[in-house]
Amino acid sequence: MNVLNPDQQQFYHEHGYLGLPGLVSADWLERLNAAAERAVDDSRETSETNAWLDVEDDHSPDNPRLRRLMKPQDYDPVFWEFASQGPFVDLAEDLLGPNIRFHHGKLNFKWSGGGAEVKWHQDIPFWPHTSYNVLTLGVALDAIDDVMGPMGILPGSHKGPIYDHYAEDGHWQGYIRATESAELALDSVDYLQGPAGTVTIHHCRAVHGSRPNAHPSRPRPLLLFAYSNAASLPIMPYNQDSAHNGAIVRGRHPDFPEIDPEPCPLPPMRTSGPYRSIFASQQGEDTATRT
Ligand SMILES: O=C(O)CCC(=O)C(=O)O
Predict the structure, then answer these.
(1) Ligand 1: which residue has its CA nearest to atom 2?
(2) Ligand 1 centre from 256 Cα, in Å?
(3) Ligand 1 neighbourhood includes 118 CB (under 6 angstroms)
(4) Is a pLDDT exceeding 70 seen at residue 249?
(5) How confident is residue 283, by pLDDT bands cut at 50, 70 and 90?
(6) Ligand 1 atom at shortest distance from the alpha carbon of 121
(7) Does residue 148 line the site of ligand 1, with CB under 6 A?
(8) What is the mean pLDDT of the chain?
(9) Going by C-beta distance under 8 Å and a sequence separation of 6 or more, which residues neighbour residue 165?
(10) Proportion of the chain above pLDDT 90, given as a percent
(11) Where are the domains positioned within the chain?
(12) 6-282: what fold?
């Protein structure tokens, strides 16, 4: 093990997630926050969502309200340095095995004063792989408490079904239908909180989401990077056109793929216009359909 002890490793495999308070060092946090701050400054140049920044409807250059920085790994070298050489790679190796492939990244800002909720969903239907040896690691760039919309994971849900993330009319809504989420044991959800540097890890099948950020002044920047065992390969085109798609960040490219007998349901094949973000899909801004 690089970082995790056997109990933590067992907890992840049993429950589908882990929270590791304050794991990332102050030095990394300082450098990552400087880059995040630059994104906020850049957002003052735009009044609407662009290729890098997904902003809320009431965003304005004078009053930035960011939902997400897309492709942070391409936006500033420190994000890629962190994703490819930082503690996430050691954690991924502890849970996925010796060969690790980078999938994608995002920095969810969840702005203060009501910053967008993330409805209950699983990750793997957004980016299906040949198997389920896939996870997402997050680091809180600032302290996260209960009012700030911490990410909540439904324990054990990674062992359950993969839910339909389409709406009844066939468009991609990117969340589990209300009739189905009403059946989930949401009172057992674990909301991962802690000081700056707290790490979240969730399995690609784990049901998760987060409430709006009700803090009056503090955004909730959560930097997320997804990885797979290198033999678990994406089935669909990448949602992001990134220089680092599919990069091996530890070990080597394998000789054979790992193929799970249970295939993952597919998201829409996007032929007109790129995928923007989960926020856009969940808030009805995504018109992609099954057909
Ligand atoms: O930012 C969050 O609270 C959850 C993020 C998430 O689930 C996602 O971006 O897919």
Answers:
(1) 151
(2) 31
(3) yes
(4) yes
(5) confident
(6) 7
(7) no
(8) 95
(9) 121, 122, 125, 126, 172, 173, 174, 175, 176, 265, 267
(10) 86
(11) 6-282
(12) Jelly Rolls (2.60.120)
